[in-house]
């Protein structure tokens, strides 16, 4: 995939400017928009537009960005962060409909994906090593959700994704949880299943299957 000139400093785009399907990536705490770009060629085909969004706030301990403060946690920043991200997703929906967009986030980005994406007519959601925000409940319309989490994660406990799965199922949206023996990462062994999920949500046959 070739880099496209991005008109916005808060995002990086890969793939064709005019596309029928899109993958949106949300990085974790302390990373930046380019952190998950290597996933693009592993999860989608070259004709899919990929947008990696940059979190709005600088990380307090050096380089990188954050969606809201985590050390210490400042939940008062969350409503504005949620609203701003949802607005960005809706703006992206003007060029590629959200119904053909899959949103994937890692860690803090996974929590933001589930929170801001809940209630939007997305094709699908992937949350890797994510967690539920306080009092979060899935809002309709509910889209397919895939969770991935390391059972030995020292940063975000594995139980956080178990709670996400419980909340989603209680709202009527079963979610598969890809558990793996590892830490705070996106496991290579989970990538084929994540790719199949993304392709299925986009309604695109996977030529690798």
SSE topology:
Layout: E1 3-4, E2 11-14, E3 22-26, H1 40-43, E4 49-53, E5 57-58, E6 65-66, H2 78-92, E7 101-106, H3 108-117, E8 124-128, E9 145-150, H4 159-170, E10 175-180, H5 191-202
Parallel strand pairs: 3-4, 3-7, 7-8, 8-9, 9-10
Antiparallel strand pairs: 1-2, 2-4, 5-6
Helix pairs in contact: 2-3
Mean pLDDT, to the nearest integer, reads 92
The low-confidence runs, each spanning 5 or more residues with pLDDT under 50, are none
Q: How many separate helices?
A: 5
Helix content percent band: 25-40%
Order of helices and strands: EEEHEEEHEHEEHEH
Estimated radius of gyration? 16 Å
Shape: globular
Q: Describe the largest sheet.
A: 8 strands, mixed
- The side-by-side strand order for the widest beta sheet comes to 1-2-4-3-7-8-9-10
Please report the total strand number as a whole number: 10
Q: What's the end-to-end separation, in Å?
A: 21 Å
- The portion of residues forming beta strands comes to 15-25%
> Helix/strand-derived class?
alpha/beta
In short:
This protein has about 210 residues and is of the alpha/beta class.
Task: Write up this protein.
The chain has helices at 40-43, 78-92, 108-117, 159-170, 191-202, and strands at residues 3-4, 11-14, 22-26, 49-53, 57-58, 65-66, 101-106, 124-128, 145-150, 175-180. By secondary structure, it is an alpha/beta fold. The chain has an eight-stranded mixed beta sheet with strand order 1-2-4-3-7-8-9-10, sandwiched between helices. The protein has a two-stranded antiparallel sheet with strand order 5-6. α1 (40-43) links the parallel β3 (22-26) and β4 (49-53). It is globular. The two termini are 21 Å apart.
């Amino acid at each position: 995939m070739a880099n496209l000139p991005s008109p916005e400093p808060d995002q990086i785009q890969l793939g064709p400017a005019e596309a029928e399907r899109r993958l949106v990536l949300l990085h974790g705490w302390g990373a930046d928009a380019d952190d998950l770009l290597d996933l693009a060629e592993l999860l989608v085909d070259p004709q899919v537009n990929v947008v990696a969004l940059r979190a709005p706030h600088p990380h307090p301990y050096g380089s990188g960005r954050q969606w809201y403060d985590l050390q210490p946690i400042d939940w008062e920043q969350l409503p504005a962060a949620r609203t701003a991200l949802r607005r960005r997703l809706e703006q992206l929906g003007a060029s590629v409909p959200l119904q053909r967009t899959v949103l994937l986030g890692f860690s803090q980005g996974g929590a933001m994906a589930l929170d801001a994406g809940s209630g939007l007519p997305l094709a699908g959601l992937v949350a890797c090593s994510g967690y539920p925000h306080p009092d979060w409940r899935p809002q309709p319309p509910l889209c397919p959700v895939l969770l991935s989490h390391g059972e030995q994660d020292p940063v975000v406990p594995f139980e956080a994704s178990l709670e996400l799965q419980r909340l989603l199922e209680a709202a009527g949206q079963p979610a598969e949880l890809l558990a793996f023996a590892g830490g705070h990462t996106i496991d290579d062994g989970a990538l084929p299943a994540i790719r199949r999920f993304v392709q299925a949500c986009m309604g695109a046959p996977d030529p690798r299957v």
